[in-house]
Amino acid sequence: MGTLPERKDIPPWVKAPEDLKDPEVLQVQTQLLEAMFGPAGSRILYIEQVSKVMLELKVLESSDLTEIVVYGSYLYKLRARWMLQSMAEWHRQRQERGMLKLEDAMKALELGPWMK
């Protein structure tokens, strides 16, 4: 997804400082970020507005994972965390199915009647 945008402000629906304490944190594969958040994170603001939370993305240097930190009121951040986990799993499964289809197609090309 390239460089991640830096957080410059706190959205009006997040109450500082109480909503900034004890954030929910989840880790997703970095390669899924563009599918989840759009090119260059273009859907992050929309997801924040709909979920009434603030998101921060932190790329973990030692792995292919990115931390998504969710700030907000207790129920909103739990709901947003569940939604983001579901999105990540859906995109991961979709990517896996695509790879399996590609493998099957490659096997079919190798076993075509003209190859025998």
Structure, explained:
The structure is a single chain. The chain has one domain (20-109): Ribosomal Protein S8, Chain: A, domain 1 (2-Layer Sandwich). A three-stranded antiparallel sheet has the order 1-3-2. The model is unreliable at 1-5 (pLDDT under 50). The chain contains three helices and three strands; from the N terminus they run βααββα. The protein is of the alpha+beta class and 116 residues long. A hairpin with a 5-residue loop joins strand 2 and strand 3 (65-71). 43% of the residues lie in helices and 16% in strands.
Protein topology:
Layout: E1 24-29, H1 33-37, H2 44-51, E2 54-59, E3 65-71, H3 74-110
Antiparallel strand pairs: 1-3, 2-3
Organism: Zalophus californianus
Pfam families: MOEP19 (PF16005)
Family: Belongs to the KHDC1 family.
In short:
Residues 11-95 form the KH-like RNA-binding domain. The chain is α+β, with helices and mostly antiparallel strands and 116 residues long.
CATH class: Alpha Beta
Low-confidence regions: 1-5
What is the count of DSSP helices, taking H or I runs of 4+ residues?
3
Question: Helix share of residues?
Answer: 40-55%
> What gap, in angstroms, lies between the N and C termini?
43 Å
Q: What is the assigned CATH homologous superfamily? A: K Homology domain, type 1
Question: In total, how many beta strands?
Answer: 3
Overall, the morphology is elongated
Question: What's the mean pLDDT score?
Answer: 84
Radius of gyration: 19 Å
Largest sheet: 3 strands, antiparallel
Protein name: Embryonal stem cell-specific gene 1 protein
Function: Involved in the maintenance of embryonic stem (ES) cell pluripotency. Dispensable for self-renewal of pluripotent ES cells and establishment of germ cells. Associates with specific target mRNAs.
GO molecular function, one term: mRNA binding
Family: Belongs to the KHDC1 family.
